Queue: 2 jobs
Job 1
Amino acid sequence: RPKGVQVRTVSVDLTDVTALATISRQTDDLDIGLLILNAGANTYRGEFVESDPVGVQTILDLNIISTLNLCRHYGKHLKARGRGAIVVVGSLAGYLGHANIGIYAAAKAFVRIFVEGLWLELEPFGVQVVELVLGLTRTPAMERAGLRFDLPGVQVSEPADVAREGLLHLADGPVWVAGGNDATARRRSGSNRAELIRGNQQTSRTMLGAENASSPGE
């Protein structure tokens, strides 16, 4: 970071109902100009009809509710400020349905449509809004999930490259697909949904290995 710049760290569980209040108490005295929402994860896996409602709610609280709360709070500040940007990190998982992580994928789809609307609302006030869509990225979470990054033809991004790309394309909202994954996003938006979903499920099984049939989150 630049010399003389202070960093204020706030440790908070974004699924807690008091999260926004905790964050705002520590930051409302700052002139926030850039909000980056990168806290999203698939925290629960399993067949939906057999799922634990608490586990499902945790996915929704982290990936949807916290995003809405933070965008409302800081988006209002940025609107009054007349400039600034909001980056919401998304996932290619949100472009089609998945077995076993269907709620996570649906949450990511929700966020993309939400960001598109927010982009329209804040653009007249000089605030840039973009969803930065990630494909397979070499994060610790993906490594812990056991994904095979070495498969032929698999497009793998590095976190630093994705972050750099996102900052370069703040003005290119409402959606920017990072890591050269534009063709994948277009393909997953096709009209033959059954073929696309079944094909992706098989690819996911291969990436995770035979011992894990769940789909990856990114």
Job 2
Amino acid sequence: MGEKIIFQPLTLWDRISVVFYRTGITVFSAILIYMGIYTVLHWPGISWREVSAITKVKNLNVLLYLLYFSVGLSVFTI
């Protein structure tokens, strides 16, 4: 922070971390959009217990793990 140079060139690690950060945000946004559209189109309007019996929970878990990973990736590279 005490540098007198206003604009410093990005190092290789800086560029890699920016790519990871933006990838995490993009994956997070895509999953949220997909889950929102899926919920609106396929929600039967019944209780959660009945929905969990109908829904493939394995697919939901994969989406949630991807969501957690993308958020963690973005936070780690900030």
